[in-house]
Amino acid sequence: MSDVLALQYMLKGKHIVLGISGGIAAYKSVMLLRLFVKAGAEVQVVITPNGKQFITPVTLSSLSGKPVISEFFTANTGEWHSHVDLGLWADAMVIAPATASTIAKMANGVADNMLITSYLSTRAKVFAAPAMDLDMWKHPSTQRNLAMLRADGVGIIEPEAGELASGLVGKGRMEEPEKIFEAVASYLTGNKPLAGKTYLVTAGPTYENIDPVRFIGNHSSGKMGFALAKALSDFGAKVRLVAGPVSLPTPEGEIERIDVVSAREMLAASESVFAECDGAIFCAAVADYAPAECAEKKIKREKRDSMTIELVKNPDISARLGQLKRPNQTLVGFALETDNETENATGKMMRKGLDWIALNSLRDAGAGFRTDTNKVTLIAADGRVSEIPLMAKSEVARRMVETIFCNADNQ
Ligand code: PMT
To answer: How large is the average pLDDT for residues 214-231?
Structure first.
């Protein structure tokens, strides 16, 4: 909450349209509205007819000091609400909660309520904080619509994983009001401590081909590395994201993505951008070994009862760049350990010439490969240690970037 306090009164003179659609998370929008108002913003609430089933306009108008808009016309006076004027008035529009239906309507321009007509009319930056049940969130239709919105420039504030109103547990819970507030306030105030900086992030696994159809790989999904790229970009940095084979969309922001497959390709791509970077985070799970040769044709099973593949050591990307490091570059590695964790991680940091290492342990439930959460111990070469408890990878990433790069003492 301290970040929020620091941002108070910083939104004076800013106009925000807060769109509320019909989901149980609408109760959290009251807190979000309060944060905007406390920070000095003028807020116009637009609520869908279904939204009113979850939260009353009286509560919202009492907090915003403005009548809540829901219908195209006011019933008793016949007054018409101009969605065009509202769209132009806004410095930012925030749709929280954004239900699956509202997301679908936004993606497809289905202008059948005031919230969507205002969305279509606004020239301001739009943020959407989805909230829905986990299966609705995972549904290909929702994910397709979200991809369209991202391509249209809408800032999607990802939902969290946790207990849902249905009693099921999974991703779909609307992000907390403080986090939504921070994203919007940071956009509106241009709070970008890393503006002008460029960082390299390696992410995902590498695949080392055995033949045209088989490879040696690992379980990395790229989620942690992509979250770091997004966090750096949210703080104003440009990012060169060198990604192994993953099926994740490029996060929104000034992020240039270079897709690679093998460790050697990852090294070449990383080396090509390293000189222009102020630092790097090596989050990729790079295969330590690769087949000495890749067969040109698929190796036939029937011809052999057993087989031996000769493996050769891959280059160590972080160690190679650690040798090239300039004094004004800050390098961060990751260590995924199962035993002697702190000792192993510290050893890796020193051997590779890194400034920090983020230790995640496979012994911690919810940490490491594929999960949406992580738990990290940050260890600095000068001995400082900072614990980041189990939380969403997006939040772990934000805290890592804040601790390592936004703190002037660390530069
Ligand atoms: O992608 P996710 O599913 O979200 O999972 C995230 C993660 C668990 C992969 C990530 O948090 C993580 O721990 N990444 C590093 C895993 C790893 O391979 O650790 P390592 O101990 O093998 O390597 C240590 C460091 O050297 C890492 O920064 C690694 O990127 C780097 N390295 C290793 C080998 C190599 N040839 N080149 C490298 O740059």
So the answer is: 97
| 107-110-111-112 Cα dihedral, nearest 10 degrees | -130
Whether 2 shows a pLDDT value over 70: the answer reads no
Output the CA 140–ligand 1 centroid distance in Å: 30
Q: Report pLDDT for 5.
A: 46
- Could you give the percent of the chain with pLDDT greater than 70? 95
Q: Which atom in ligand 1 lies closest to the alpha carbon of residue 246?
A: 1
Q: Report yes or no: 224 and 284 within 8 Å, Cβ to Cβ.
A: no
Q: How is the beta sheet containing 15-20 ordered, strand by strand?
A: 42-47, 15-20, 92-98, 125-130, 155-156
Structure tokens, 106: 């936004």
What integer pLDDT is reported at residue 300 of this predicted model?
Answer: 87
Task: Tell which wins on pLDDT, 7 or 155.
Answer: 155
- Nearest to 281, CA basis, from 367, 399, 201: 201
Half-sphere exposure of 204 (CA within 13 A, CB side): 22
CA-nearest residue for atom 37, ligand 1, is 316
Catalytic residues: 218
Q: What domains lie within the chain, and their CATH numbers?
A: 2-188 (3.40.50.1950), 198-410 (3.40.50.10300)
